[in-house]
Amino acid sequence: MLTRRIFVSTAGAIVASPAIIGRPAAAQTTVTLRSTDIHPDGYPTIDAVKFMGQLLEQRTSGRIKINVFHSAQLGQERDTIDQTRFGVIDMNRINMAPFNNLIASTNIPSLPFIFRSVAHMRNVMDGAIGDSILNDFSAHGLVGLAFYDSGSRSFYNSKRPITTPADMRGMKIRVQQSDMFVALVQALGANATPMPFGEVFTSLQTGVIDGAENNWPSYESTRHFEVAKFYSLSEHSLSPEVLVMSKRSFDRFNAADQALVRAAAKESVAKMRELWDAREKASEAKVRAGGAVINTLEKQPFIDAMKPVYDRFVTDAKMKELVARIQALT
Ligand code: BDP
Fold first, then answer.
1. pLDDT at 330
2. Counting atoms of ligand 1 from 1, which one is nearest the CA of 213?
3. Which are the contacts of 265, defined by CB distance < 8 A and separation ≥ 6?
4. Using CA positions, which residue lies closest to atom 7 of ligand 1?
5. Is the CB of 222 inside a 6 Å radius of any atom of ligand 1?
6. How far apart are the C-alpha atoms of 137 and 231, rounded to whole Å?
7. What pTM did the predictor assign?
8. What is the layout of strands, in order, in the sheet containing 230-237?
9. 244 sits in which H/E element
C-alpha cells in the first residue's frame, strides 16, 4: 500500500493530501513501501531490501522509503503472493518456488542440478535469461525487480545420513508449495509434504515429517538443525530468491521514480551477495558447532533419479530453449 499522506484518486493517480495542497506535490509526497519477508531480522534478504530502501531514501531526499516486515508478519510466502498482486503489500522478497505453479518459467532456475556452480547461476540470472524470467511476472500483476542468491539447497532429516537416493525411500520430506519440488522429492522415492516454512520446525519436532531441504542459513536461522541433525550435501537446487513489486504500487510512480526503484533494486544485489557469502560461512560453522552431522555424497545417482522432473516440467519450446541456453552458458 502506498500509504502516508497520499490519497489515491479513483483513477489510481497519486494526489497530494489537503495538508500539502498549494505546495508542489512531487516534492512533498512521502511514500513508504511495505515489503514482506518470512526471514528474521538480520537475515541477508532483509538487510538487502533495507539497503535498497536507504538508497531510495537518499536519492529522493526521503520521498520514497521501504519498511521491511520480517519474520512472516504479513503472512507465509504463498499467502503473500495474491496480496502483492492486489497491492495490499507493495514489495515481496520471496523464493522462486512458490511461483512455480503460477509462472511456468520460474520453474527453470529451481530445477534440480540446472546450475553447475554459484558463478554459473549468477551469470544466468544477471543476464538475458534472468531478465526474460523477470518480465514474465508482469502478466501476473507483478514487476520483477531483481534476483537474490539463495545458496544451494540440501536434504536434512532426523533419521540418518543420506548418501544414495535409496536412503530416502519412504521418508517424509517437507517441500515448498511447488509441484516441481513435490516431483523432485518423489523422484527419489520419498514422500513429499508441501507446507509453509513457518510450520516446519514443529513438524520436524513432532515427527509429522522426517526431513526437509534448505540452504545453510535457513537450516541455521530456523534451528531446524536442532531437530533434524543429519545434513547431507546433495546441493540439488539453487532456486534463487526474487524481489517483486506489486504492479499497482509500481504504476503509481512516475517514470523517473520507477527507474529509481529498478536501479536501487539491482544495486542491492551486490550488497546481498556480500552479506550472503559471509552468512553462509557463519551458518555452516554454527550448525557444525551445534551438533549437526554433515556428509557429502556422490551426486550422479541423484542427478539420474531426478531426470524425469525435466521431462515433466520442461515441456514447451520456450522452456526447452531456456534450459538449453542455460546449459550452454559458462
Ligand atoms: C529459504 C528461502 C525462503 C523459502 C524457504 C522455504 O529463502 O524464501 O521460503 O527457503 O523453504 O531458503 O520455504
1. 83
2. 11
3. 52, 145, 146, 243
4. 95
5. no
6. 34
7. 0.92
8. 191-194, 172-175, 211-214, 153-157, 230-237, 293-295
9. strand 241-246
